[in-house]
Structure formats: C-alpha cells, structure tokens
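Appendix C: a fully annotated inverse folding record. The material below is reproduced so that readers can follow the format used throughout the book. The structure is listed first as tokens, followed by the designed sequence.
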C-alpha cells in the first residue's frame, strides 16, 4: 500500500470499523478479517487493536468479555448509541468530502481535456 493510501486510511479507519460494528458485534480478529474481506488487505492487526482501545475510551462501543474455546475470554465490541451517532457524523462528512472531491476531479479533468483540445 502506498504512503498516500496509508495516510488517507488513517483518517477513515475509525469510521470503517464503526460501520462494520453497525452490521454486527465482533471481536478484534474478526474485525480485522472483515476489513480485509472488504479489500483493505494491508491493515495490520495491531492497528485495529489500537483503534479498538481508542473507540472504547471514547465510549463509542460497549464491550463484553465472552468465553473463548481457545485461550482467554474475547472482548466483543458492540456499537452503542454514541457510536451510532459518531458513525452517522462520519457518513455525513464522508458524503460531503466525496461530493466535493468528485466535483474537483471533474473540473480538473474538464480543464485537462480543454487544454489538450486547444493544443490540437
């Protein structure tokens, strides 16, 4: 993954995790697997676990320790009301950015086409 992709993901990864938890509760490794299943294959497990600590500290999730067949209990994360509100805000911000970036890209593409046409 390129540096630019890594930097962009840093700003959106929390929203991605919240969106996955809105679908269904999950534990850390399961979240990492689901993120990879959505095409984000280069995300390190450690990155997800650090993010889970942050969203827990921000009270965006409820955590329940569930017995595991192998090893210690797993922490299962469930999106709570505050997390759902944060996710809604994330999607509003995402929609705003996506719309305006698309407009900027279109303007840039149009200007490039006009410049090329004038040169020919």
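Designed amino acids, in order:
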């Amino acid at each position: 993954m390129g540096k630019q992709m890594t930097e962009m993901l840093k700003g959106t990864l929390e929203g991605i995790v919240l969106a996955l938890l809105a679908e269904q509760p999950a534990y850390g490794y399961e979240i990492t697997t689901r993120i990879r299943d959505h095409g984000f294959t280069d995300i390190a497990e450690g990155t997800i676990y650090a993010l889970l600590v942050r969203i827990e500290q921000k009270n965006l999730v409820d955590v329940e320790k569930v017995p595991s067949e192998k090893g210690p209990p797993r922490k299962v994360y469930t999106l709570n009301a505050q997390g759902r509100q944060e996710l809604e805000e994330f999607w509003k911000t995402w929609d705003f950015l996506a719309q305006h970036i698309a407009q900027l890209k279109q303007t840039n593409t149009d200007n490039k086409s006009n410049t090329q046409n004038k040169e020919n």
